[in-house]
Amino acid sequence: MTMPLFAWRDNSCDPRVCSVKKLQRAGLIRVFPEMKKIPKSTIILDPTAEQAISPADRIAPSITVLDCSWEVLNTSALSEWKRRRALPFLVAANPGHFGRPFMLNSVEALAAALYILGEKEQAETILAKFGWGLRFLEVNKEPLDEYAQAKNSSEIIKIQSCYY
Known about the structure:
Low-confidence stretches: none
Helix content: 25-40%
Strand content: 5-15%
Order of helices and strands: EHEEEEHHHHH
Number of strands: 5
Radius of gyration: 14 Å
Protein backbone atom coordinates (compact mmCIF):
# COMPACT_ATOMS: atom_id res chain seq x y z
CA MET A 1 0.00 0.00 0.00
CA THR A 2 1.31 3.44 -0.85
CA MET A 3 0.91 6.51 1.30
CA PRO A 4 -1.39 9.16 -0.23
CA LEU A 5 0.49 12.31 -1.21
CA PHE A 6 -1.11 15.74 -1.25
CA ALA A 7 0.04 19.23 -2.17
CA TRP A 8 -1.13 22.76 -1.88
CA ARG A 9 0.23 25.00 -4.64
CA ASP A 10 0.28 28.76 -4.74
CA ASN A 11 1.28 28.68 -8.44
CA SER A 12 4.38 30.79 -7.79
CA CYS A 13 6.79 28.44 -9.56
CA ASP A 14 7.38 27.90 -13.26
CA PRO A 15 4.80 25.23 -14.32
CA ARG A 16 7.26 23.82 -16.89
CA VAL A 17 9.68 22.73 -14.13
CA CYS A 18 7.30 22.34 -11.18
CA SER A 19 7.85 18.92 -9.57
CA VAL A 20 4.33 18.84 -8.09
CA LYS A 21 2.74 19.49 -11.49
CA LYS A 22 4.77 16.63 -12.97
CA LEU A 23 3.68 14.28 -10.15
CA GLN A 24 0.09 15.41 -10.63
CA ARG A 25 0.21 14.66 -14.38
CA ALA A 26 1.53 11.18 -13.51
CA GLY A 27 -1.34 10.64 -11.07
CA LEU A 28 1.00 10.33 -8.07
CA ILE A 29 -0.27 13.27 -6.02
CA ARG A 30 -3.53 15.09 -5.36
CA VAL A 31 -3.32 18.88 -5.44
CA PHE A 32 -5.60 21.07 -3.36
CA PRO A 33 -6.39 24.58 -4.60
CA GLU A 34 -7.21 25.79 -1.07
CA MET A 35 -5.35 25.12 2.15
CA LYS A 36 -8.54 24.58 4.12
CA LYS A 37 -9.27 21.48 2.00
CA ILE A 38 -6.10 19.68 3.16
CA PRO A 39 -6.98 16.81 5.53
CA LYS A 40 -6.26 17.74 9.17
CA SER A 41 -4.81 14.26 9.87
CA THR A 42 -2.02 14.60 7.29
CA ILE A 43 1.63 15.32 7.98
CA ILE A 44 2.35 18.84 6.73
CA LEU A 45 5.97 19.24 5.65
CA ASP A 46 6.85 22.59 7.17
CA PRO A 47 10.45 23.79 7.55
CA THR A 48 9.34 26.05 10.42
CA ALA A 49 7.87 23.18 12.45
CA GLU A 50 9.31 22.52 15.90
CA GLN A 51 9.35 18.75 15.46
CA ALA A 52 11.25 16.70 12.88
CA ILE A 53 9.56 13.96 10.92
CA SER A 54 10.53 10.52 12.21
CA PRO A 55 9.48 6.88 11.95
CA ALA A 56 7.17 7.58 14.91
CA ASP A 57 4.98 9.45 12.40
CA ARG A 58 4.21 6.27 10.43
CA ILE A 59 0.71 6.34 11.91
CA ALA A 60 -0.17 9.36 9.77
CA PRO A 61 -2.49 8.54 6.87
CA SER A 62 -0.86 10.91 4.34
CA ILE A 63 1.85 13.47 3.62
CA THR A 64 1.24 17.00 2.33
CA VAL A 65 3.82 19.30 0.80
CA LEU A 66 3.30 23.04 0.53
CA ASP A 67 4.52 23.92 -2.95
CA CYS A 68 5.01 27.64 -2.57
CA SER A 69 7.44 30.41 -1.80
CA TRP A 70 8.32 30.13 1.89
CA GLU A 71 9.21 33.83 1.95
CA VAL A 72 5.57 34.83 1.55
CA LEU A 73 3.75 31.94 3.24
CA ASN A 74 1.80 32.88 6.34
CA THR A 75 2.94 30.03 8.62
CA SER A 76 0.43 31.03 11.32
CA ALA A 77 -2.22 29.60 8.96
CA LEU A 78 -0.59 26.18 9.49
CA SER A 79 -1.37 26.08 13.21
CA GLU A 80 -4.59 24.14 12.52
CA TRP A 81 -2.60 21.03 11.61
CA LYS A 82 -1.32 18.97 14.52
CA ARG A 83 1.28 17.03 12.50
CA ARG A 84 3.54 19.76 11.18
CA ARG A 85 6.99 18.29 10.66
CA ALA A 86 10.32 19.62 9.47
CA LEU A 87 12.75 17.55 7.46
CA PRO A 88 16.21 16.97 8.90
CA PHE A 89 19.45 17.95 7.18
CA LEU A 90 19.54 16.73 3.58
CA VAL A 91 21.24 18.01 0.45
CA ALA A 92 19.35 18.92 -2.72
CA ALA A 93 19.99 17.04 -5.96
CA ASN A 94 17.59 19.04 -8.13
CA PRO A 95 19.26 21.06 -10.90
CA GLY A 96 18.26 24.41 -9.40
CA HIS A 97 19.86 23.82 -6.00
CA PHE A 98 22.22 20.85 -6.42
CA GLY A 99 24.47 20.34 -3.41
CA ARG A 100 22.76 22.95 -1.26
CA PRO A 101 21.57 21.84 2.18
CA PHE A 102 17.91 22.34 3.08
CA MET A 103 17.07 23.54 -0.46
CA LEU A 104 14.92 20.59 -1.46
CA ASN A 105 12.18 20.95 -4.02
CA SER A 106 8.76 19.45 -3.34
CA VAL A 107 9.41 15.98 -4.81
CA GLU A 108 12.65 15.70 -2.84
CA ALA A 109 10.82 16.71 0.36
CA LEU A 110 8.10 14.13 -0.25
CA ALA A 111 10.64 11.42 -1.11
CA ALA A 112 12.66 12.17 2.04
CA ALA A 113 9.54 11.97 4.20
CA LEU A 114 8.50 8.70 2.55
CA TYR A 115 11.96 7.21 3.02
CA ILE A 116 12.09 8.17 6.71
CA LEU A 117 8.61 6.69 7.20
CA GLY A 118 9.71 3.37 5.67
CA GLU A 119 8.15 3.87 2.24
CA LYS A 120 11.41 3.60 0.28
CA GLU A 121 9.85 2.07 -2.85
CA GLN A 122 7.31 4.87 -3.10
CA ALA A 123 10.13 7.42 -2.64
CA GLU A 124 11.99 5.81 -5.56
CA THR A 125 8.82 5.74 -7.68
CA ILE A 126 8.17 9.46 -7.39
CA LEU A 127 11.83 10.40 -7.85
CA ALA A 128 12.13 8.17 -10.95
CA LYS A 129 9.88 10.63 -12.80
CA PHE A 130 12.81 13.07 -12.89
CA GLY A 131 16.11 12.50 -14.72
CA TRP A 132 18.05 13.64 -11.68
CA GLY A 133 15.57 12.22 -9.12
CA LEU A 134 17.25 9.01 -7.97
CA ARG A 135 20.47 10.98 -7.52
CA PHE A 136 18.76 12.55 -4.47
CA LEU A 137 18.71 9.16 -2.76
CA GLU A 138 22.33 8.49 -3.71
CA VAL A 139 23.54 11.83 -2.37
CA ASN A 140 21.61 11.41 0.90
CA LYS A 141 21.77 7.63 1.37
CA GLU A 142 23.72 7.58 4.62
CA PRO A 143 21.66 10.17 6.53
CA LEU A 144 18.36 8.87 5.14
CA ASP A 145 19.19 5.32 6.26
CA GLU A 146 20.07 6.60 9.73
CA TYR A 147 16.96 8.79 9.97
CA ALA A 148 14.80 5.83 8.94
CA GLN A 149 16.21 3.85 11.92
CA ALA A 150 15.51 6.56 14.50
CA LYS A 151 12.73 6.10 17.02
CA ASN A 152 11.52 9.67 17.29
CA SER A 153 12.13 13.33 16.50
CA SER A 154 14.74 13.73 19.25
CA GLU A 155 16.85 10.95 17.75
CA ILE A 156 16.51 12.53 14.30
CA ILE A 157 17.92 15.79 15.70
CA LYS A 158 20.86 13.95 17.29
CA ILE A 159 21.61 12.14 14.02
CA GLN A 160 21.27 15.38 12.07
CA SER A 161 23.96 17.00 14.23
CA CYS A 162 26.49 14.53 12.78
CA TYR A 163 25.85 15.94 9.29
CA TYR A 164 25.08 19.57 9.93
